[in-house]
Every structure is written in C-alpha cells, then in structure tokens.
Design goal:
Helices cover 74% and strands 0% of the residues. It has 240 residues and is mainly alpha-helical. The protein has two domains: 45 residues, Arc Repressor Mutant, subunit A (Orthogonal Bundle), CATH 1.10.10; 136 residues, Tetracycline Repressor, domain 2, CATH 1.10.357.
Length: 240
C-alpha cells in the first residue's frame, strides 16, 4: 500500500472510531428517548406534544424515534416498563405480602407510604405526566391503573377486609378505607413534589411516620370512642 493510501485508510479508521465513540448505544438512546418523552409530555400534555417534538428535543429524527418505538402505544408501554423497573414493584409487593402474613399493620402502611413518597420525590415529571393523562382521559392513565393501581388496590382491599373480619379494623367499606390510606399519602406527595404547595417542613420519614399514625388511628379506633376511663360523661352510647 502506498503512503498516500495508508494515510487515507488511517483517516477513515480514525473517523470510524470517533463516530462509534460519539454514537449513543441503542439501549442508552432508548433510555434517553423515554426520559425526553416523559419530560415533554409532562410539560406540554399529550394534546400539545407530537412525536416530532419528542424527536427534536432528543436531537434525533422521527425515524430514529420510530425505530425504537413503532407506535405511540409502544412508547406508553415502555414508559410504564421503565417506571416498573425503578419502583422494583415485585420486591415491594413481596415485602407488603410479608407484612400482611405477620399482620404487621404499621409496617405494611409505612412501607406503602414510603414507596409512594419516594416515587414522587425521585420522579415528579412522571407524576405530572400521570396528572395530564388522567385529566385528558388518555390511554396511559388506563394502562397505569391496569398495571399498578388495580393490583395494589385489590391487595389492600383483601387485607383491610381480612383485618376487619379479625376485629382489628373498624367496619366500613374496604374500598373507602383503601382510598383513605393511599389517598392521604398521595395527596401530600403531590402537593410537595408536583405542585410545590405544601408548607410542611418535616422530612419525608417524619411525614410517613405521622401519616401512618393518623391512618391507623382512623382504621382501628371506632368513631366516637374515647380513651379508656374518659367518656366525658357521654356513656357507652357514644361508642360505635
């Protein structure tokens, strides 16, 4: 090979190496596109976001986007897959089931509350996205409920009904009890991390401890009951 030919070959090799080094791997590109999609949807909503907007924000063409996600529904499922990975949903459910077997009410609701708060704290954009999805009646909201909401609600419904049967929880519709227990934590987490409205200065751990105390107080203490020996003169009829 002539010196000139060797120089051309060398330049091509360098160029190829730089290109390979500078090009994002397929898996990293996929993760980048998911993150950009979540942030864009969370900022502009679903109605205000086109696939070209996501591609442009990621610095790629729509063709690259569609190479990773053939349809928008594929993109929505991938967003939920990524969320499931970060939540470690299987591990969390096994931990809750263990608390249920031990009848550890405080441990179960403490772990549930801590996971909810950490999810909002670590990824507020995802939860803003879910607010948009719910308000717009978007497919992603339905997919989220099917994958995460319904299984968790069914598990908690069964646990509350069981503890009611065993006499540990006061009588009420189990679904209302679940809404009370979960909704209390979600409302606080959304106020602190999505809307930035809460003025509570406690740490997340302190909030979890207090909210779980309040939730268990509502579930285990009959309405109108008083501490033993202090019925304020109202007699036994004051207790349910």
């Amino acid at each position: 090979m002539s010196p000139a030919a060797r120089q051309v070959s060398s330049r091509r090799a360098v160029s190829t190496t730089v290109s390979k080094k500078g090009r994002m791997s397929g898996e990293n590109r996929r993760r980048q596109l998911l993150r950009v999609a979540i942030d864009t949807f969370a900022r502009d909503g679903f109605g205000g976001t086109k696939t070209r907007d996501i591609a442009s924000a990621a610095g790629v063409s729509e063709a690259i986007l569609f190479r990773h996600f053939a349809t928008k529904e594929d993109l929505y499922h991938a967003i939920l897959d990524a969320k499931e990975d970060t939540l470690e949903a299987g591990r969390m459910m096994r931990s809750l089931e263990n608390c249920a077997r031990l009848r550890d009410d405080e441990g179960l609701f403490r772990q549930l509350a801590a996971n909810i708060l950490s999810s909002f704290r670590d990824d507020p954009a995802f939860h803003r996205l879910m607010v948009y999805a719910s308000l717009e009646g978007h497919l992603l909201a339905s997919l989220f409920r099917e994958r995460f909401g319904l299984p968790m609600s069914a598990f908690l419904h069964r646990y509350v009904a069981l503890r009611q049967k065993e006499g540990a929880f006061r009588e009420c519709e189990p679904d209302l009890a679940v809404m009370f227990a979960v909704g209390t934590v979600v409302h606080f987490a959304m106020g602190r991390y999505v809307f930035r409205m809460t003025k509570v200065q406690r740490s997340d751990d302190a909030v979890v401890a207090k909210l779980v105390t309040l939730v268990l107080g509502g579930l285990t203490r009959p309405v109108g009951s008083c501490p033993r020996g202090k019925n304020n003169g109202k007699g036994a009829h004051a207790q349910s």
